[in-house]
Amino acid sequence: MRLQLALNVTDLDESINFYEKMFDTPVAKKKPGYANFEIANPPLKLVLFEGQGDGGTLNHLGVEVEEKSQVSDAEIRISRSGLETTGIDDTMCCYAEKTETWVEGPDTKWEWYVKTGDADVLENVIVSSEGTSCCPTDDTPQASACC
């Protein structure tokens, strides 16, 4: 398990250069407008979004886990505590296939997820038994996180 920090950046290449030096870790994935680092020490998933908001601002926070059951356990625990979640969805977002749930905090969105594969899309696509749908249109945390 590791924390995820997703930042909005002004210049993706400049930011990649900076964080590679700062954490002595090469970029793990780079796509148009997107990059991520899998930093071992401290355990951190650093995600950069170019052009998603003002540079240097927080996009969202997350917890990356190793198994789908951990997402389910977190969903149950968070819901039972009285916080509203989006429920668990299988999605394609941020160039990855994921199982995830979202909760809106007082000042930021939190994603609890497991990566299950790679994908070729940045935008959020929900995968269900009825097919796929791009970006929910309501104002849920999930709709605004990767869209």
Please state the structural category. alpha+beta
Low-confidence blocks of residues: 131-147
Q: What value does the Rg take, in angstroms?
A: 15 Å
Biggest beta sheet summary = 10 strands, mixed
Description:
It is a single chain. The protein has 147 residues and is an alpha+beta fold. 20% of the residues lie in helices and 44% in strands. It has 3 helices and 10 strands. Strands 2-3-4-1-5-8-7-6-9-10 form a 10-stranded mixed β-sheet. The two termini are 25 Å apart.
Task: List its traits.
alpha+beta, globular, disordered C terminus, 10-stranded mixed beta sheet, 3 helices
Topology:
Blueprint: E1 2-9, H1 12-23, E2 29-31, E3 34-39, E4 44-50, E5 57-64, H2 68-80, E6 89-93, E7 96-104, E8 109-118, E9 125-128, E10 131-134, H3 141-145
Parallel strand pairs: 1-4, 5-8
Antiparallel strand pairs: 1-5, 2-3, 3-4, 6-7, 6-9, 7-8, 9-10
Compact summary:
Helices cover 20% and strands 44% of the residues. The protein is α+β, with helices and mostly antiparallel strands and 147 residues long.
